[in-house]
């Protein structure tokens, strides 16, 4: 019938290989790769090169960054990130040391003041002479400064730990992304098919689409 003849013509046309390619003159067998499931399909060898994937690379990058911040970024060859990692974590460490030093100084002065001594560094800041009972910085001011620098020190510690953890996460995720498949070795295959109903033998026409990654 004309309808069936038209369908089978369509089947023959769509059934032809969509990316078939013959070996061009001057090419050797080493330059081409033949699909054994379909010998008509010949693909350039340089278009199917695969990059080896190391499943342990993310773990190694995270471990290196845990041992020494920035080392995982070097392992991932993201050298431009190393100064950022050093600068961020170094700033956090500096802020912690700075506030911890001031906290210790005000705490020691406050403890000596409560013990009855008048020789702490904040008793005579202006070098106008020690006047017992009239310090340049009161006991309340010493206590407030001690608590303020303690809070700042603890906050700097939390931020530094967060930056350290972020450095490890960045190295791990970056190593994962480097192995993400972004090559162009993709193919789309269309396969028309004809099936008959098992009971009434009515023909069923269809088209299958296969995407190969």
Features:
single chain, 213 residues, alpha+beta, 2 domains, two-stranded antiparallel ribbon, two-stranded antiparallel sheet
Task: Write up what this structure looks like.
The chain has five helices and four strands, in the order H-E-E-H-H-H-H-E-E. The chain has 213 residues and is α+β, with helices and mostly antiparallel strands. It folds into two domains: 76 residues, no CATH class; 122 residues. The strands form two sheets. The protein has a two-stranded antiparallel ribbon with strand order 1-2. Strands 3-4 form a two-stranded antiparallel ribbon. Strand 1 and strand 2 form a beta hairpin. Keywords: Signal. InterPro entries: DUF5683.
Spell out the blueprint of helices and strands.
Layout: H1 2-14, E1 32-34, E2 42-44, H2 57-67, H3 71-75, H4 82-114, H5 139-178, E3 187-196, E4 203-212
Antiparallel strand pairs: 1-2, 3-4
Helix pairs in contact: 2-5, 4-5
Neighbour order of strands in the largest sheet: 1-2
Domain count: 2
- Report the sheet with the most strands, covering strand number, pairing sense and barrel closure: 2 strands, antiparallel
User: Overall 3D geometry?
Assistant: rod-shaped
Helix content percent band: 40-55%
| Rg over alpha carbons | 37 Å
Please give the count of helices.
Answer: 5
Beta-strand fraction estimate: 5-15%
Compute the number of strand runs: 4
| Alpha carbon gap, first and last residue | 40 Å
- Averaged pLDDT: 76
- What is the structural class? alpha+beta
Outline the low-pLDDT stretches.
9-48
């Amino acid at each position: 019938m004309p309808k069936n003849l038209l369908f089978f013509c369509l089947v023959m046309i769509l059934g032809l290989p969509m990316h078939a390619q013959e070996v061009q003159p001057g090419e050797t067998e080493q330059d081409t790769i033949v699909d054994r499931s379909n010998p008509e399909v010949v693909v350039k060898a340089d278009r199917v090169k695969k990059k080896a994937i190391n499943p342990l690379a993310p773990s190694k990058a995270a471990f290196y960054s845990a041992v020494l911040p920035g080392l995982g970024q070097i392992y991932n060859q993201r050298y431009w990130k190393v100064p950022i990692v050093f600068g961020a974590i170094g700033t956090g460490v500096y802020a912690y040391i700075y506030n911890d030093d001031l906290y210790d100084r005000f705490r020691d002065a406050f403890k000596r003041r409560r013990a009855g001594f008048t020789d702490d560094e904040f008793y005579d800041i202006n070098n106008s002479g020690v006047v017992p009972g009239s310090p340049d910085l009161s006991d309340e001011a010493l206590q407030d400064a001690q608590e303020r620098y303690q809070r700042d020190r603890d906050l700097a510690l939390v931020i530094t730990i967060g930056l350290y953890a972020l450095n490890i996460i960045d190295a791990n995720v970056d190593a994962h992304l480097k192995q993400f498949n972004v090559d162009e070795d993709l193919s789309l295959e269309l396969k028309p098919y004809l099936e008959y109903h098992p009971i009434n033998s009515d023909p069923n026409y269809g088209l299958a689409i296969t995407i190969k990654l």
